[in-house]
Amino acid sequence: MGVVTESQFHVLAVDDSFFDRKMIERLLQKSSCQVTTVDSGSKALEFLGLRESNQSDDPNATSTSPFVCDFVQEVEINLIITDYCMPGMTGYDLLKRVKESAAFRSIPVVIMSSENIPARISRCLEEGAEEFFLKPVKLADLTKLKPHMIKTKLKKESEKQAEEVKPEIEEEESPVIEILTLHQELESEQQEPMLSNNKRKAMEEVISTGRSRPKYNDITTSV
């Protein structure tokens, strides 16, 4: 299992407040994280490559998910931290859309808010948020993020290694199949002469029996 360091983590920070974005960016950089900041939930989805399926260019396209992924994000995101109260799309809406995406649902999502409303906090945690921080976010709060990012990153690395090992196993199985097929063909070829010899032997026994049988010239058949 590989060793994960903080410098390997990339965080997507979402907040409509310029001051709060800069604040969270500085705190994350102090934690040796790479940070990408956007000012809305829609821009966060755009960065991830997510959009609503009803906006598809193909009118006949159907999808079981309300959101589709236009492309695979080349830059790996290890965590999303978003403000709750934002115009247009709230942090809760962004959380739901990320968790509804098969490609990104494993990314940990953390919600921030300046309002301490228990019902709001519970709703976000039930929807899949890893943490709910009250603003202003402190450096001590960000230490809680590290275990979530390590767990997700190690899981992705394990899945990647498993995918790399699978083709090697399939390649090793093919020579075995060829050997078994060749063995079956040799057995078939060996059985054919044996069957021919057995048939010939049986015919010789019948002929031999006919020659040794006594002849009765006085027997006639009447109708």
Briefly summarize what is shown.
Residues 187-223 are annotated as: Disordered. Keywords: Nucleus, Phosphoprotein, Transcription, Transcription regulation, Two-component regulatory system. This protein is an alpha/beta fold and 223 residues long.
How are the SSEs ordered, and which strands pair?
Elements: E1 10-14, H1 18-30, E2 34-38, H2 41-48, E3 50-52, E4 67-69, E5 79-83, H3 91-99, E6 109-113, H4 118-127, E7 131-134, H5 139-142, H6 145-212
Parallel strand pairs: 1-2, 1-5, 5-6, 6-7
Antiparallel strand pairs: 3-4
Keywords: Nucleus, Phosphoprotein, Transcription, Transcription regulation, Two-component regulatory system
Main location: nucleus
Pfam families: Response_reg (PF00072)
Strand order of the largest sheet: 2-1-5-6-7
Rounded to the nearest angstrom, the radius of gyration is: 37 Å
Helix content: 40-55%
CATH structural class of one domain: Alpha Beta
Q: Specify the structural class.
A: alpha/beta
InterPro entries: ARR-like (IPR045279), CheY-like_superfamily (IPR011006), Sig_transdc_resp-reg_receiver (IPR001789)
Keywords: Nucleus, Phosphoprotein, Transcription, Transcription regulation, Two-component regulatory system
Main location: nucleus
Subcellular location: Nucleus
Structure characteristics:
single chain; 223 residues; alpha/beta; Rossmann fold; 5-stranded parallel beta sheet; two-stranded antiparallel ribbon; 6 helices; 50% helix; disordered C terminus; transcription regulation; Response regulatory domain-containing protein
